[in-house]
Amino acid sequence: MGKTIVRVDALDSDIGENGDVHYMLVNDEETPFLVDSNNGDVKLRRQPFMNESSWRLRIRAIDGGWPYPRSSQMILTIYINGTNVPSKIRPALSRDPPNENTPKFENLPSMIRVNEDADIGSVIVRLTASDTDRGYAGILRFACWDEFFEIDAHNGELRVAEDLHDLVHHDIVHNVDSDTIVHNVTVTVCDMGEPVKCSNETLAINVVDSNNNAPRFDKPFYNVRIAEDIAIGSEILVLTATDEDFGDNARIAYKLAGDDAHVEIDNEKGILRVRNQFDRETNEIYRFSVVAYDHGHPPKLTFVNVSIELDDVNDNAPKCAEPIQKVQIPEDYPNGALVTCVAASDADAGENGRITYGFDSLLDKTSTQLPFRVQADTGCIFVDSRSPLDFETRALYNLSIEAMDNGHPTFSTVCTVLVELIDVNENVHAPVFSDIAHEASVYENMPVGTEVIALQAFDPDDPDAAVKYAIVDGDGMGYFMVDPAGIVRTSIVLDREVESRYWLAIEAEDAASVPLSSIVHVFVRVLDKNDNAPLPSRAIYFASVPENSPEDTVVVKVEAEDRDEPPSGEDRAELRFRIASGDPQSFFSVDPKTGYMTTRGRRRLDRETQREHVVYVEICDQSSPRLCTTVPVVVTVGDLNDNPPVFKQQIYNFNVPAEKTGELCRVFAVDEDEGINAQLFYNVTSGDNRFTIDESGMISVTEPLKGDEIAPLTIQATDMGRPYNTASARIILTAIARKSSEREGNHKPRLLNEHHWSRLPISDADNVGETIGLIEAEDPDGDQLWWTITAGNLNNTFAIRCDAGELLLARPLEYVNLSVTEFHLEFSVSDGIDEESGKIVVEVSRSPQRRPRFTAQHYRTQISEKTPVGTTIYTVKAIVDESGLTHKTANKMIVYGIHSVENLAAADKLRIDPSSGNVVVMESFGKDVAREFSVIVSARNGQMSNYAILSISLLDDNDNPPKFLQSEYSAKLLASSPLGSVAVTVQAFDPDVAENGVIVYTIIAGNDHGHFQINGATGEIRTMKPLSTSEYSEAILTVRASDQSKYQLADTCTVRIQTVVDEEWQPTFQKSVYSQSLRESTPAGSLLMTVYADGASGIRYSLQDPCDSLAVHSVSGAIYLKNRLNREKHGVTVNCTVIARNTMGAESNARIVLKLIDVNEHAPFFNQTVYYGICAGEYAPWFGRSKQRRYASYC
């Protein structure tokens, strides 16, 4: 047992593992032997059975090659000693058939998807391959070398070998933005032939990430401390969570677990920011949860707790227990006596909440002079005065007690303590003006807010007391305003041409609790400025004068008017006339004062040289600066019969056909006159009486001429003028006979070079008698040819020489209708037997002969002064009849323009569309534009122009109802107030002018018992009956403000008046800061805003110096612009302080902040309204003929 019987040995030529040979016994179960796999020793593994004497061992030698080992097999026969042994023992070796083909994969999938959480061993695909070899060479084995996948060598099933989670999360080439990774697996299929043949393929396996990981925060909880005044939007902290998945499964978003009003979180970045301001005094610690969730399906989420602890900031000022304390003490109260104690609290902590009391050094600059002192730690107030309190000196003390904390920065609150002594009314005298009436003047066109006159009234009771002014009557209401200083200013831009004088009634009222007033009358004269150019009575003058007229013949009178005020002592403005252009040869003169235009000099007008003269007359006023307007005068020169007819030749020789009767040939004369003076008739004055001539000059014969017969004639042309003129010409007719009269064998005439004469141009510039073209023809037989026009010769405009074919212009084109653009002439050429016919197209081109004609000479329109920029306010229309064009096309060639504008201020406000005639608003109409003005518009067709007047009236549309500065007013009034006390003043504003802007106030409801009365002009509401708190604790009045237009517009407001007993309320502004943006262009006198302070006993408003730019209405609180502002002088912001004070001396203040805005005051403009250009020939199809004028429109 175990003894080596025999050793088998196989050789392999390969090296390494490929040449490492191992052995195996294929049929080991059938024999008692075994083979050592390493050295090939065959050993006995058991005792042979009794009946066994020999054995056939099948031994296989296998190498260690890759991807598949190769093998060989041999048959070894072993015999027991003494049994039949073959004579020669030889091992039997067997080999596979030759391996000729390489295995091939079949139907490989293009993409394989497998989920990350696929089970180990799960089959993801089964691969197939084929090999056409037989035997071992056809046996296939599959293999792959991959950490995460394996393949069954026999059936090709590709299975998951390891947890794919490790692949997904450790693949170094994975794109974290995708939920899929591509893992390449190389699979091999090999046969078992000799030599082994293999095929390799790479499979792309898409491993899909599974959302099996929830996000994880980097901390188990977050805690942060911040100051409570951290700014909104500030970053508090950044929460970070990670997810081991990929793609959307790893894309994390954040949100708050609940709705927290103070914080917000960035959904993507996890940045926690301040959403609303924190307040430590409300909550010292804010706790909430944040959720981090991925975008898988379904998503996974994680919570984390966040705590925000707030550090105290000194953000709370102390608060007064009573904002206003009221106490009454006798005026003989002893020095050192306790008046009252001020109580305040502070919500802050520590030193931020510890309060110290004292007089407010900022609001009460006279604190050192007050007869009181304040205890710093308790806030108690004591009398502290060397002199006793005196009611006559001061009846009420408004003590501003500052309660200040000890934080950084320091905050403080002012508590008001009203210490009342007694109120006594001592108002006896009304304000006094220096005179009962005043006269003032102001120039027209001055900007709104221009100072007219400064009025001053003083109060005899207290010369230093403030006096308020108001315009209460007069026809100038709405045109003027008066500021608190008594300066009367314009409220609109005045126009002397509309109204030259105004009366105003101005009231001055003192500031007492029961005020007194007086009235002064002011007469305002509006001074003229030369702002209107002279306006001619007609936009264009048409006149006619006979030619050869003697010197000083009156042609026309040019008239004009000027709306401006004439010089002193004159009934009308003095105008001067002169010829500005259009008369280079000095045919005319114009009287500089009267405007009469006459002929002048020795040069006489000659219609035949120039039929029409367009003279531009300049009309100028004599003011400074001098304004001028030009008006065109079209002078038509009338015709005199001063030109006789003229034949082009004195002797005409014509060859005419023999043996023919009727029309032979045509002659004509030319007369340079026009009309009836140019109409001609002809007659034969000498010669054979067989000949006649008609009115067109066609010579006819009644009896035929014989061959070679010569007939001389004398033809006379006579015009129809008075006196008439004549001209004669000699006509010699030579009869030409045919060589043969036989038709047989005769050849027709033949037309030649038709392309030269079949289409001929002609224009109205061609003269009568000129040759237009030559109709060429020949006769094959050499016969004489005769030409005749047979049709299409309108008005006998053309003539053809009978014996030569020369086509001539016989009559002027002006006698032909302008609509005719072509003549279609038919003619014949005859040899006396046969004839040939043809056609000629004569194209007619005309220069413009008709000037445009406006549909009206004077247009009128009314527009609102608020017409928006870009609005078409009117369309002027002109028409023209042009030859060669349709009516619509001819009118499209008209170019419109603005010739002049009467009012200077309106000159740049309007433009006219050159092609449509639309008059368009280019700039808003300011108040400086005249209410009525005229514009002279022009229409041009080529070089011919016409003009018309467009009169424009600017209307002040009553489109603005009065508007109260407040929808509701409230006031408190002592029940003990004397009758006539002012409870409150309401004020409305109307931006319209004149009567449209005059406001009248009335009480329409709530005053059934007549306790109150309102001043219709000023809006002051006064007491008329004693008030009782038990019967009349509160009055609710409805006040209406109406304008004085024809169709009145109105607004209403509510007035609440409370009656109080023995109390004086500290005035309290509704806002501590009133801010507004203001344009630099805002005129002086403009209403900016209204401030309001709540309180009793007739509050009066004033501005704290310095404040030179603003003014305040002492009763209504309306803030006006006193002087125009500009950023260069006043800076970007203007700050002022307004003070509200009641009759008892109690007061408060507020800040007014104006932010100045730069104004784009200058619009772009074109240097001219019409531009001309020349179009080169290659662009001619766009414009008709080349080198025509091109009119460009403006923007």
Question: Would you mind describing this structure in some detail?
Answer:
With 1195 residues, this protein is mainly beta. It folds into ten domains: 3-79, Immunoglobulin-like (Sandwich); 104-208, Cadherins (Immunoglobulin-like); 216-311, Immunoglobulin-like, CATH 2.60.40.60; 319-422, Immunoglobulin-like (Sandwich), CATH 2.60.40; 432-527, Immunoglobulin-like, CATH 2.60.40; 535-638, Cadherins (Immunoglobulin-like, Sandwich); 646-729, Cadherins (Immunoglobulin-like, Sandwich); 747-847, Cadherins (Immunoglobulin-like, Sandwich); and more. The protein contains four helices and 99 strands. The strands form 33 sheets. Strands 2-5-6-7 form a four-stranded antiparallel sheet, with no helix packed on it. The radius of gyration is 60 Å and the shape is flat. The chain starts with a strand and ends with a strand. It comes from Ascaris suum (Pig roundworm). GO terms for molecular function: beta-catenin binding; cadherin binding; calcium ion binding. Pfam families: Cadherin (PF00028).
What fraction of the residues are assigned to beta strands by DSSP? 35-45%
Work out the number of β strands: 99
Mean pLDDT: 85
**Total number of domains:** 10
| Spatial strand arrangement across the major sheet | 2-5-6-7
Describe the biggest sheet? 4 strands, antiparallel
If you compute it from the alpha carbons, what radius of gyration comes out, rounded to the nearest whole angstrom?
A: 60 Å
Number of helices: 4
* Overall body shape: flat
CATH superfamily of the largest domain: Cadherins
- CATH-derived topology of the largest domain: Immunoglobulin-like
What structural class should be given to the helix and strand makeup? mainly beta
